[in-house]
Amino acid sequence: MRRDIGIAVLSMVVVLLAGCRAMDRLSFIRPSAERGEFRQVAPDRDVSGKPGKRSADPVQLLQSAVDAYRLGDLVRAESLAKASLQAGAPAGDANTLLGVVADARGQREAAGGYYRAAASAAPGNGTYANNYGGWLCATGQARASLEWFDRAVADPTYPTPANAAANAGDCAAKAGLAARAEASWRLALATQPTHVQALAGMAALEAGRGRHLEARAFLERWLELNPNDLAALRLAAQVEDALGDNEAAARYRMRLQAASSATQRALPTP
Questions:
Q1: Which residues contact 134 (CB under 8 A, 6 or more apart)?
Q2: Domain membership flag for residue 182
């Protein structure tokens, strides 16, 4: 499905290891006028979003809102995004940005309303579906989020279906749906064998089932990609303990201690 506007909102990947930790911020690319859907931006076009000014180009208004967001001016970003919506910018992109701004301002419920509006405006758009699913899962509605991740995976133009599948796995696990979680993580790995989020999910799942050899296999792939991942090293030590390999467990704990110390040294001084 072709996107309706030149400003493309890339996926907001929901990283949910150990129970829906955080939502990564969205990335944006600059707009371009596509097939005359929006007029080219004239040099004297007003993009202030203030009443009484000449009618602004909706694409440029939305880009100005993105720029304001990047500069940390959340009030101006919100104002410009709302103005772009009123001027005819695609509801999906404008509402997504409004959701990001609301999240940044700590307005969690308002953000959810915007993410839902974006998904409703373009029901087949995987990016908007993944974003709304991520918000649902992060706000204690893990079971309800699964439908939206499924929609994201079903969008043939969605660039990162493995991310949506891995998100579904994490949220299914959070909802206590182990079989669904496994199916989603395996789908993510079938699409992208090096998907760390899905490898982590499967490693934890197999360890929790007492299938420690299987957990070890997923952990080895995880650590090959992220050798100093604290969660992976901690789980690997526990798995080796369960398998009776005390030497391997000790090596992992030494690596864990070294990686933890390095992380602490890298933290900014208060």
A1: 12, 13, 14, 23, 145, 167
A2: no
How many separate domains does the chain show? 2
Query: Of 84, 78, 135, 124, which is closest to residue 101 (Cα–Cα)?
Result: 78
**DSSP secondary structure string for all residues of 34-76:** -TTSSPPPPTT---S--TTSPPPPHHHHHHHHHHHHHTT-HHH
What tens digit of pLDDT does each residue of 143-196 get?
999 999 999 999 999 999 999 999 999 999 999 999 999 999 999 999 999 999
- DSSP, res 194: T
91-104 and 108-121 helices cross at what angle (nearest 10)? 170
Q: Which residue has the tokens 């969205």?
A: 26
Residues 135 and 200 grouped into a single domain:
no
What is the C-alpha to C-alpha distance for residues 212 and 255, in angstroms, rounded to an integer? 20
Residue 186 included in any domain: no
Domain co-membership, 253 together with 202 = yes
Instruction: Go through 109-140 and write b for each residue having 16 or more CB atoms within 10 A of its CB, e for each that does not.
Output: ebbbebbbbbbebbeebbbbbbbbbbbbbbee
Q: Which residues of 190-203 are buried (b: 16+ CB within 10 A; e: fewer)?
A: ebbeebbbbbbbbb
Question: Could you tell me if residue 97 is inside a domain?
Answer: yes
Same domain, 1 and 103: yes
DSSP run (H or E) holding 204:
helix 196-208
What is the per-residue pLDDT for 106?
95
